[in-house]
Amino acid sequence: MPYPHAYRCPFGTDGADSAGLATAVFEGAMRDPEGGMNRPAAIILQPVQGEGGVNPAPVEWLRQIRRTTHELGIPLILDEVQSGVGRTGTFYTFEKAGIRRPIL
Q1: Among 30, 32, 79, 97, which lies 20 to 30 A Cα-Cα from 41?
Q2: CA angle 13, 39, 80 (to 5 degrees)
């Protein structure tokens, strides 16, 4: 799935609506039963991409991804190996989006 990026927009635009476009593509793929893609067992994403430069995910995009995965019953795995443990100001980056980790 495309990851929103304001500077290098994967959609070839100026990047102003990169998060909105990435959300639309993600939701379309996850919600379309005739789209030719099976529902995944889980979604894994990095709240901050760290290879090839630092690219933090827009907070609203993270919220929308979480909302969609919750509604569809798809586990969301947030990879914070490079950005977690206080490296971005909060203990985990996803906390800025109001996402809470499940109590196991």
Answers
A1: 97
A2: 65
Instruction: Write the burial class of residue 78 (CB in 10 Å: 0-12 exposed, 13-18 middle, 19+ buried).
Output: buried
Q: How far is residue 70's CA from residue 55's CA, in Å, rounded to a whole number?
A: 24
Per-residue pLDDT tens for 19-61?
888 999 999 999 888 888 888 999 999 888 877 677 888 889 9
Share of the chain above pLDDT 90, in %: 25
pTM of the model: 0.80
Which element (helix H / strand E) includes 45?
A: strand 43-45
Distances (CA, A) of 17 to 11, 58, 74: 9, 11, 25
Assign residue 80 a region (left: φ > 0; alpha: ψ between -120 and 50; beta: otherwise).
alpha
